[in-house]
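Deliverable D5.2: sample structural annotation.
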Amino acid sequence: MYGTYLRRELAGRRKQTIIVAAGLGVAIALVIIVNSLSAGVRDAQAQALESIYGVGTDLTVTGATTEPGEGGGPQFEFEDGAGETSDGTTSLSQSRLMADRMRGTLDASTLTTVESLDGVSGASGALSLTNTTFSGEMPDMSQMGQPGEGGAPPAGGADGAGGSAFDVESFTVLGIDPSAVSVGPLSAVTLEDGRALDADDVGQNVAIVDSTYAATNELAVGDMIDVGGTEMEIVGVIASTSNEADTAANVYLPLDVAQTLSGVGDVISTVYVQADSSDAITTVQAELAEALPEATVSSQSDLASSVSGSLSSASSLISNLGTWLSIIVLAVAIMLAVLFTISGVSRRTREFGTLKAIGWSNGRVVGQVAGESLVQGLIGGVVGLAIGLAGVLTINIISPTISTAAETTTQAGPGGMGGGGMGGFGGAATAQTATEVVLSAPLTPTVIAAAIGLAVAGGLIAGAFGGWRAARLSPAEALRSVG
């Protein structure tokens, strides 16, 4: 009987049912789309951070930023007789492995300090370097005639007009502890070929390379690569776990080998830190800052704040405008449902007065009104879910691409010659590293459950107010008011 009466009343008040369900449906659809977009932006931000951060680590400790020293980039010096001479032209080539001049290094004991702190479950040290190779050809200056003697310029240079031609090529190198790869750069990579570094590689001239760098330079497992003037055997090729991001460096060496080749001594440039739990990250960051006042301690949230471009704008828009808009629309929809329900109860004064006169209790009347409102809310939930799914599907089909940018310190190109040989090539420079990511709107069971929950809650709230209004009706007064 209850169901029959409920169905008849909803059918008889079709206009009210449609308006209440439509209002709740639009609000719930907006909530679904905004939440899905927010999740998509978080995924996009994580992807952008992975390309910047390079590893799945909670915190990093690095040396403080320093002023650029004199001389700019790596200094190349060639002794007399260096290079190979052929047809009056001398070919020169030299590789230098150097630390970032814009970032101070840390003593190796810093790693021990970090590992001793409470809340730290693991840590590993790394040395970030840049390998720069200078190569070029110089004419034999002794063959040039003195001014006024009619000497012809030597062959070589562009178009055979004499002169010199030089190239400077560089790639990034990361020295890591082969026995502690579970924390740090190699914890966020997959092995594509060969093997990874292990504890037996300490002191060995071996290397693993990034798959993108290997493909670009036609390198494979078993090949040799010149790092700092020393031939390294490639034992593995790795790739980032993200299809849209590269690994943290082009080439990876055992830490002690990298320290020796670069001549920097027993130092590191970065300590990668893993906290016991996500709740402990803030506490560990404060402890690190106190224990290492001269170092720079960063978390992923700190790096997220440096991400700029349309990703940051999209994140801000969805987090602020989208969330508040959803709340406002949902509140308005529930308010309309409440008003329509109360108005409906007022128009049904005679009906409820009659029902009470024939024996209906207040509880039964309230249950009738609440049931009608609940069904209207569920209809609105189904409508909202359908609209929300359509919106999410549209976003995923379009797959808009947005860009991010973050400031990075890089080595510039050739900057001239100086000193006792070839020097002053490069120099630290600040540049914007752009990354393009695809924005999606993932739909999770939690979002769907929340949408259904909001629909039920909206119906119950409207039913509660309407039932309260109906319960206050006195049978005699209700019948008298329409008599």
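Annotation notes: The first helix runs from residue 2 to 12. Residues 52-56, 68-73, 153-162, 406-433 have pLDDT under 50 and may be disordered.
The annotation will be released with the project's public dataset once the embargo ends.
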